[in-house]
Amino acid sequence: MENSEKTEVVLLACGSFNPITNMHLRLFELAKDYMNGTGKYRVIKGVISPVGDAYKKKGLISAHHRVIMAELATKNSEWVEVDTWESLQKDWVETLKVLRHHQEKLEASSCDPQQDSPRLERPGRKRKWAEQRQDFGQKELLEPKTKDVPKVKLLCGADLLESFGVPNLWKREDITRIVGDYGLICITRAGNDAEKFIYESDALWKHRNNIHLVNEWITNDISSTKIRRALRRGQSIRYLVPDLVREYIEKHDLYSPESEERNVGVVLAPLQKNTAEANS
Amino acid sequence: MYTLGTLIYTAVWCQLSNMSYCPHEGRVATAVGVEVPDKMKSRIPVVLLACGSFNPITNMHLRLFEVARDHLHQTGMYKVIGGIISPVNDNYRKKDLVAAHHRVAMARLALQTSDWIRVDPWESEQAQWMETVKVLRHHHSELLRSLPQTEGPDHGRAHSLAPTAVPELKLLCGADILKTFQTPNLWKEAHIQEIVEKFGMVCVSRTGHNPKEYISGSAILQRYQHNIHLVREPVQNELSSTYIRRALSQGQSVKYLLPDAVITYIKEHNLYTGDSS
Question: Where is the Cytidyltransferase-like domain (chain B) (predicted)?
């Protein structure tokens, strides 16, 4: 399939990134190889969107630091970048809204006549429609709009997929829209468990074609929790996180028994919000 | 398993020792000339030696050193003063082994940012493949040869080299190596004995291996089990050079699995493309 027929994809990863690790970065690489390998997609960008402080997760340090660490981690990446929109919001933002924000941003910039694009300059929506009516049959006719604007897809590990089952953590409608309108790319070791999970959920099953399970053949278990634990115990985290991130953590002494106690006793924002709405 | 006592000891030690874990400050005193707090002075100095193909070197290899060092330090008995990576000779004739000069160069690039681990090409430069025990003997005698003499400015240390200050060279490896001791004809019995008796081993756990079982299944290993340090790596990692080679030959990304400088080298020299050479 020619490049021009492929769907362009932007991979969006939401999460605490507390701190970002080599495993997070691997998710992007694995997903890109997989999606490009299907021959139907072309991954053009990866976006890391650290969650805002209002998420209130235990041990979550300030977004300011988490964003900087993610930026340091992606300094040497040609295609993965950090977006701060979510982290700058005052209240916690549902993942669906973050997806929507990024999709709308892509659509807006694809309508921008000043946009420097390797392909033909794309005129504004109105003009294009008018042009199509006039330039009927001309070779320069733009491709169908659905292929023009890149699609944002949610990149995650199996833990996020399975968290769909946690009561009140997600709104049911949100899950449906995430997999229905956007799509999920889930990197997992235990492919069978993930498939079973999808099978057992009507909402997920319906949109299973929009859920891409990517097998991570080698266990690469570098969780942020283990990183923080190692730091508290004075153990080395070298080669588990990018060197710049490690140096930043050391310089600012970011993780300690005290930092791990943050938000203890506080209800996680989505649980609070969804329970309140359910009770209202 | 950490007992409460070990945890308390470690916490106190970290505070008293002034040793930060920042590599820029140098984590542990090298042999000469640096002030060492009393607690560290009485520890046995250790150099870790890792033999292997390093075909190519990966973050997992580098982790072995970090994890082993942390473990030895937290026993309270050792201070790790150096690490050596010794890539195997080409005459080992393992399948897909790229030329030693490449493997050495890649290891060197990977260790650019390390202040305590270095690559030593001696083994790879010999005319033929040599048994691990010979590599250990060589590096141990080199180590003894490089020790500071007793005359010289007094830095507050003992005037003569106390017996406990003689550095020990230990073989650093994955726990799977212990299993290979059981393979008939792979190792000489006398060599296994010399390795565990005269040098010692630091074995880092790998998924699917039960090192305690390997030890209890061997009389020699059991006898010297005090000299075989079993280290648990909490971050389970199945990363292997085999996986890297396969990914590379399939055109897949290996970023974040090995240092960027090594990936660049591999691309520049067209290594591991899957073309049989």
Answer: 49-246
